[in-house]
Amino acid sequence: MLVPAAALADMKVARGIRAAAIALLALATSPVLCAQWMGHQTGCYAPSITANPNRPTVANPADITQYGVLELEYGWDRTSLGAGAHVTELEGLLKFGLLCDIELRWTMTNYLWQSPSAGNQSGTGDNWFGPQVRFYRQTAHVPTLALNYAVKAPTASSSKGLGSGLVDHSVTFLASKDIKKIHFDFNATSFWIGKPAGSGFDQNFQINLAFSRTIKGRLGFTGEFYGNTELNPATPGFASTLWAPTFAVTPRLIIDAGIEIGLSRGAPQQHFFVGITYAIANLYSATHPRRNNSNFSSVAK
């Protein structure tokens, strides 16, 4: 039986995704690898708990949550779709610093509401799961480098039009660097989005460049430029920009609020958001004595 060339290409993509996912998940969760790696987790504890915000930008930092720390990000978003239509979301990100250089991530959309002109539906959104592995820490001339894999659990209702009902995948290369007093985050992501009709995936890419700086004391500012390539004829590419002030209530609690403005057709026209990042606790501190911190290195976003 002959298999169409397009189907063969989709099968190769699917195999590639599975291979990448298995490799990253094995690295992050294998008892044997974890046991071996735990023996090298010296100098991982930070002197104190400090939040490592991924929000409000679309880009994420290459540096991960501190070793043993459970951290939550949560926020409210409202995106204008034009012609009076808008979508409101309550979404979050739960992160755990499993090892010195491995973070486990759960991105959630707990509530999604469409205005009457956008469909007038509401319910739970999708969930994404996956690890982030930092493989190089920042030096004088080289940024922190990491890889991130995520798979979407299609928990949003497809019958209501809140989601596709299909599994999606993403693989991201991340680089972060401090230059003078400005912190930069660069992301390059490949998405494999399940096709609504038929098997296989549509693929597109996203490029992000975000920057942040302390303005004075605990007040900071962050901005970002990013864009997506075309996914398919119904989903064109776009470019957008995001701007937000941030405020560190404590080193463990950061609040943010801002706006995203589309720069091209197909981009969000106006996207307002407000949220928090909170480093909850170090789950290892009660069971693992703090080791020498002389080798600890962390670059906060």
Description:
The chain is 11% helix and 50% strand. A hairpin with a 2-residue loop joins strand 7 (169-179) and strand 8 (182-194). The protein has helices at residues 5-29, 31-38; strands at 69-82, 85-99, 102-114, 122-123, 127-136, 144-153, 169-179, 182-194, 201-216, 219-228, 238-250, 253-262, 270-282. A 12-stranded antiparallel β-barrel has the order 1-2-3-5-6-7-8-9-10-11-12-13. The chain has one domain: Porin. It starts with a helix and ends in a 19-residue tail after the last strand. The chain contains 2 helices and 13 strands; from the N terminus they run H-H-E-E-E-E-E-E-E-E-E-E-E-E-E. The chain is globular, with a radius of gyration of 20 Å. The chain is mostly beta strands and 301 residues long.
